[in-house]
Amino acid sequence: MGNSLFKGSRTASILCCGLDNSGKTTILSHLSTNNNTNDQVILPTPGMQRSTFHKFSTDWKVWDCSGTGPNRKLWPLFYQYVSGIIFVVDASDRERISCAKDELEAILSANEFRKRKTSVLILFNKMDIEDTPNIAELETVLRLSQMRQQQRNIDMHLQACSGIKGSGIEEGFRWLADSVNSVA
Ligand SMILES: Nc1nc2c(ncn2[C@@H]2O[C@H](COP(=O)(O)OP(=O)(O)O)[C@@H](O)[C@H]2O)c(=O)[nH]1
Ligand SMILES: [Mg+2]
Asked: What number does the ligand 1 atom closest to the CA of 20 have?
């Protein structure tokens, strides 16, 4: 029986990753400060930091990992400890979209996620910026339908959002809360 029947007892241990500057810390601050991010200065994340908050009847423990080149090597150290992954893409950064694709592909094809069910929320961030590609285009560029076929154990959800405006974030996290707490 899944935990989702027991409201209040749900937990979610999550790795939040994605290239540097994609908006990970901004998105997490939106939730951990109850949308009150207006006066906050978000600094680049050194290595990693843990964000904990209670939302959607779920206790969240989210590892916010730096996405600069050398720090990406740390992401796999968390795989065995998490039930879900949030991968944040700066949808407006056309120059680095193929780098984001490579990093996401490396995560999705990790052995750890072949063994057990894992929830993966892909947040297409910065949708407030003009001329940002739409979800369908991003899905193609990131080869997500191929990835879905290859990795049957991954429960994947795509969500457009804006960390600055706060749109789309709650929808994405609601899906993730249900997915990590559903029956495998
Ligand atoms: N326009 C826009 N800028 C954003 C958005 N989310 C984050 N940013 C900006 O992107 C920069 C990097 O954000 P940060 O949260 O530090 O990214 P991280 O390195 O992935 O943690 C900051 O200047 C943020 O203000 C968004 O949705 N829209
Ligand atoms: Mg950060």
From this structure: 19
Ligand 1 atom with the shortest distance to the CA of 42: 16
Rounded distance, CA 54 to CA 21, Å?
25
Kindly report, residue by residue over 29-78, the tens digit of the pLDDT: 999 876 655 556 777 777 889 999 999 999 999 999 999 989 999 999 99
Answer yes or no: pTM beyond 0.90.
yes
- For the chain, give every domain's residue range: 11-30+47-183
The confidence score (pLDDT) of residue 3 equals 45
CATH for the stretch 11-30+47-183? 3.40.50.300
Q: What is the DSSP-derived secondary structure letter of residue 98?
A: H
Tell me how far the alpha carbon of residue 23 lies from the centroid of ligand 1, in angstroms. Answer: 4
Cα 22 to ligand 1 centre (Å): 6
Beta strands in 56-170 (DSSP E): 58-65, 84-90, 118-125, 154-160
